[in-house]
Design a protein that fits this description.
The protein contains nine helices and no strands. It is mainly α and 192 residues long. It has one domain (8-190). Helix 2 (23-46) packs across helix 4, helix 7 (145-156) crosses helix 9 (172-190) and helix 8 (161-168) packs across helix 9. The protein is globular and about 50 Å long. Residues 1-6, 105-110 and 112-126 have low confidence and may be disordered.
Length: 192
């Protein structure tokens, strides 16, 4: 839930005004969300392989353009906005990785080792094969979409258990169970 005094209520109000068709709300919104978007982008890029060519500012700009084009979304809260932003950044990075992989046609493409997969589960290591992770998350989503969303929000966006629960409209306990289960599943999937 948005907490008074944290800026969340103000952001939520501007998001709702923007959803209601008030374009000036978007102008006021950007300065308030930019810092958090920057943190999200930096968190994503820290998990990328060394030498990644996409810069933080470029990732923020691409994600922001995707977000402002979303007319089909009724923004519920600050948490909802940043959850959608996380999803947009993930898609941009996966597309970027696929493009680079196609360009290299397997050249020095980095595969995910067993040690790196273990680090992925612990969410502490850089150099994750984003294409393999995306494919595994897509596979997970086919039989448990909620668990895939929990991973996306917790791992990529860095949302807490509480924030993830709020974004998905489920209990914190359910998020914790899904997080543990999906991490174990991803570990098995990525280390096959």
């Amino acid at each position: 839930m948005d907490r008074p005094g944290s800026g969340s209520v103000e952001i939520t109000q501007m998001l709702r005004e923007w959803s209601d068709g008030k374009p000036e709300a978007l102008d006021n919104l950007l300065p308030l969300v930019y810092t958090e978007l920057h943190r999200q982008a930096a968190r994503y890029l820290r998990k990328e392989r060394p030498g990644h060519t996409l810069q933080t500012t470029a990732l923020i700009n691409e994600a922001y353009l995707k977000l402002i084009d979303r007319r089909d979304v009724r923004w519920e809260s600050r948490t909802h906005f940043f959850a959608v932003a996380a999803q947009a950044m993930r898609r941009i990075l996966v597309d970027h990785a696929r493009t680079k992989h196609r360009e290299k046609r397997g050249g020095d493409y980095i595969k995910l080792s067993l040690d790196e997969a273990a680090a992925l589960v612990a969410a502490k290591e850089n150099g994750v094969d984003l294409i393999a992770l995306d494919e595994a998350l897509s596979k997970l989503a086919k039989f448990d979409a909620q668990q895939a969303r929990v991973v996306e929000l917790r791992y990529f966006s860095g949302l807490s258990l509480e924030e993830t629960a709020e974004a998905l409209h489920i209990s914190r306990a359910t998020v914790a169970r899904d997080w543990e289960s999906s991490r174990a599943w991803l570990y098995r999937e990525l280390t096959k």
